[in-house]
Specification:
There is one protein chain. The protein is an all-beta fold. The chain is built from no helices and 11 strands. The strands form 2 sheets. Strands 2, 4, 5, 6, 9, 10 and 11 form a 7-stranded mixed β-sheet that branches. The chain is globular.
């Protein structure tokens, strides 16, 4: 059974760097042809893809967030971490980690999601 779980602070100042960790169980994050994404959702709005880290550790970020985003992993803990600086001054976005499968090998799409963790940005 594949499970993803987000963890991190529920409150952060806009000057701080947000750090969230996704702990994966049931599958190794090094399993080939899967990418591991971070996605966020402002209240009442749609999902915004932030970036991903691939099976071999390659990363790619949303162009709008690239300069403020870092994703890295700890394979010994089967975790990957999002670091996002200069977060919105006021907000309470929900952050998700999710698994994406290669369209050819794994069928494409996001098949597993964490339950999400709400992060409030307040000064």
């Amino acid at each position: 059974q594949v499970q993803l779980r987000e963890s991190g602070p529920g409150l952060v100042k806009p000057s701080q760097t947000l750090s969230l960790t996704c702990t994966v169980s049931g599958v190794s994050i090094t399993t080939t042809f899967y990418d591991w994404s971070w996605i966020r959702q402002p209240p009442g709005k749609g999902l915004e893809w932030i970036g991903y880290i691939g099976d071999i550790g390659s990363t790619y970020y949303s162009p709008s967030l690239k300069s403020r985003t870092s994703i890295f992993r700890d394979t010994s803990k089967n975790q990957f971490t999002l670091q996002l600086s200069s977060v919105t001054p006021e907000g309470e976005d929900v952050y998700y980690c999710a698994r994406w499968g290669d369209p050819v090998v794994r069928g494409g799409g996001y098949d597993y999601w964490g339950q999400g963790t709400q992060v409030t940005v307040s000064s």
